[in-house]
Amino acid sequence: MKQKCKTEAQKNLKEVKEEHRKELLLLEERMKEMEKEKEAVIKEFQKEKELRCKVQGKFGELVKEFQNFIDMAGSFDKGQSEFVLANFLQDVLDDPM
Predict the structure, then answer these.
(1) Could you tell me the sign of the dihedral formed by the alpha carbons of 80, 85, 87, 92, in that order?
(2) Which residue of 35, 52, 86, 96 shows the fewest CB atoms closer than 10 Å?
(3) Residue 47's domain spans which residues?
(4) What is the pLDDT of residue 68?
């Protein structure tokens, strides 16, 4: 009877260990997938950040050129273009990313 119980316990332990091993493998696989997802998100964020910097630079150039146009138009005072673009300029250039 003791031998039968011992054999049964060893069988159960072996089954539990195998189940545990399979679960660990699944978790490791999921962790690898999540790491790949994280890397993809970081890469996409970096692309967005680079694009935003380019847009901010181009927009800054646009504001300067618009101010030059206003200055050359003659009917406006220097710096008068800023009131036209003030809210948009602040949103685009000052927004921390």
Answers:
(1) negative
(2) 96
(3) 2-94
(4) 80
